[in-house]
């Protein structure tokens, strides 16, 4: 690993934290944190998601009831405007990170062309 | 999205293609491509993996026999020194991309601290 790439990664990270996408997530998280109701709703949504993900990774079965409850919790969370705003801001920021991955993967994929 | 971040992403990509990790994958792929036996072995390994991944994504069942055959194909492929070299080089390069993701995800995760 050359030393240079860390300079470029760190420069990218500095710019990343200055994007409007990053600022939007920061603002949206602050607003959820300041709203007791939104915060409680988001926490229960996220904790439930984590529990289900863990079950899935461990190959445990997820019952229809559990799934239905999870969907209702997700719907409830998303019906809160502050949480909805935060999830949308997250998605836009994830899009930026995905773009970085696409740009880096492209030359790697081209190495495998013809295989 | 600010225009700046694309400059930084492109600069990172240019440096990325100059790393020893990238050069190692390029060299390893060239060597596999030039070796008929290694190439055929790698293709059958990769095609089988893709088929199984697709089945998994579509929720189709993968039989014990299929799994056993996939494991044997993987073992056979990895016992080829040129393929083994290529897979190790790939892993090292993936490590670089993962590092980029870690650096970018860190400030995002810190936004959620206390939630
Ligand atoms: Ca409220
Ligand atoms: Ca040979």
UniProtKB/TrEMBL annotation, chains A, B:
From the UniProt record, list the coiled-coil ranges: none
Q: Which Pfam families match?
A: Com_YlbF
Q: What InterPro entries does its record include?
A: Com_YlbF, YheA/YmcA-like_dom_sf
Q: Which Gene3D superfamilies match?
A: YheA/YmcA-like
The UniProt entry, under HAMAP family, shows:
UPF0342 (MF_01526)
Protein family according to the UniProt entry: Belongs to the UPF0342 family.
Give the protein's recorded name: UPF0342 protein M9R32_14620
